[in-house]
Specification:
The structure is a single chain. The longest helix is centred in the N-terminal third of the chain and has 16 residues, at 5-20. This protein has 3 helices and 7 strands. By secondary structure, it is of the alpha+beta class. The protein has a single domain, classed as Class II aldolase/adducin N-terminal domain (L-fuculose-1-phosphate Aldolase, 3-Layer(aba) Sandwich). Helix content is 24%, strand content 22%. Strands 4-3-2-1-5 form a 5-stranded antiparallel beta sheet, with helices on both faces. A two-stranded antiparallel sheet has the order 6-7. β6 (114-118) and β7 form a beta hairpin. The chain is globular, with a radius of gyration of 14 Å. Mean pLDDT is 79; it is low at 115-142. Keywords: Metal-binding, Zinc. Belongs to the aldolase class II family. AraD/FucA subfamily. This is L-ribulose-5-phosphate 4-epimerase.
Length: 142
């Protein structure tokens, strides 16, 4: 039994909502869930099929980006999630999707951003052409 089991379970359950609501295709997109009091967050492992994934597969990292618990490689989007947790103290979750609608807007070069606050976290989605859709650098969606 780990001190992070409930965090990993919440992260797992949140990630399962992405395919259920058709917000992702294949393994593209993820949810991370934080425990600001402990200074850690759990995130879906990279490339793991949602149908095969288990709560224990979630990777727990600290706010420096170091793996605290988990044997799999964290999502390739981990640096973006990490930057958001560092920039917005106290947020509880980050959701990153590649929904077909958002991807269509991005491919068309049309902005389509969404930025809202929820009791469990700060949600941000940006597409190509949006001021909040930055790749790399230290702005990471800010």
């Amino acid at each position: 039994m780990s001190q992070y089991d409930s965090l990993k379970e919440e992260c797992f359950e949140s990630n399962l909502l992405l395919p259920e609501f058709k917000l992702i295709d294949l393994t593209f997109g993820n949810v991370s869930v934080a425990d600001p009091a402990k200074g850690v967050f759990a995130i879906k492992p990279s490339g793991v099929d949602y149908r095969q994934m288990m709560p224990g597969d979630m990777v727990v990292l600290d706010y420096e980006g170091k793996t605290v618990e988990g044997n799999l490689r964290p999502s390739s989007d981990t640096p973006t999630h990490l930057r958001l947790y560092q920039a917005f103290k106290g947020i509880g979750a980050v959701v990153h999707t590649h929904s077909r609608n958002a991807t269509s807007f991005a491919q068309a070069g049309r902005g389509n951003s969404l930025f809202w606050h929820h009791p469990r976290g700060l949600f941000l989605r940006g597409c190509a052409g949006d001021p909040c859709a930055h790749r790399g650098g230290n702005r990471a969606g800010l």
